[in-house]
Specification:
CATH architecture of the largest domain: 2-Layer Sandwich
Oligomer: single chain
Shape: elongated
Radius of gyration: 30 Å
Distance between the termini: 79 Å
Largest sheet: 5 strands, mixed
Number of domains: 2
CATH class of the largest domain: Alpha Beta
Number of helices: 6
Strand order of the largest sheet: 5-6-4-9-10
Number of strands: 10
Structural class: alpha+beta
């Protein structure tokens, strides 16, 4: 066992104590100074805490887009899949929004990629502040973003998209507001993330074709 003893100077010392009964029925005690072992144990605890913190940091980095601090594509896919499975079990509607900044290449070519990065960071911050804690927000590459809204029907999704258009208009380049095209797909039954994503991608393409700076809902071809 391990004990703390107080020596003649009043110092507290950790000691390891072993005891056994000899053949002569006497108890023999052995005391060992455990100060170094305690220091080693404390160092091990500190090291474990540091490693756990580093592991958590690496986990966050692996799930986050470096520029915008939103979810990255891989993490968005993983969390969206879980959300869709949960929504299917509880019979909830889920909306997936794909946002694409209009004429972003022209902005990069005209004002430089640093200006483009500033726009992406500002947009990411605004999207994150506008969304609920239950929503999923991600940058999936370039000027494209995804937002998944759980338990949100088409009417409420449209209202949310209108807010997004107004919010994005507050971001300006040389006093000119930027605009976005939004494609929306709604899952009212069990759907895979890949299928929902493909529909939102088609819808945003339709929004681009219809003149940009607008929201289009996916319409299945009959």
């Amino acid at each position: 066992m391990q004990l703390l003893i107080i020596n003649g100077k009043g110092e507290r010392l950790p000691v390891t104590v072993n005891a056994h009964i000899g053949s002569d029925h006497c108890i023999y005690w052995s005391f060992f100074n455990a100060s170094k072992r305690d220091l080693l144990y404390e160092e091990l605890l500190k090291t474990r805490s540091v490693l756990e913190a580093q592991a958590e940091q690496l986990k966050q980095l692996a799930a986050t887009d470096e520029l915008t601090q939103l979810l990255n594509r891989r993490e968005m896919k993983a969390r969206s899949t879980l959300m869709l499975e949960q929504a299917a079990r509880s019979h909830q509607i889920v909306s997936l929004l794909m946002l694409d900044i209009d004429f972003f290449k022209i902005i990069n070519d005209t004002y430089g990629h640093m200006k483009g990065d500033d726009i992406l960071k500002e947009l990411g911050a605004k999207l994150n502040s506008e969304c609920r804690k239950t929503d999923l927000v991600a940058r999936i590459g370039g000027e494209e973003f995804l937002i998944m809204l759980p338990d949100t029907n088409q009417e409420n999704t449209l209202l949310f998209c209108q807010k997004l258009h107004a919010l994005v208009a507050t971001i300006k380049v040389e006093n000119t507001p930027i605009t976005i095209s939004i494609g929306v797909s709604i899952a009212d039954e069990k759907m895979s993330f890949a299928a929902l994503y493909a529909q939102a991608d088609k819808a945003v393409y339709q929004a681009k074709e219809q003149g940009r700076n607008r929201t289009e809902f996916f319409q299945a071809v009959k």
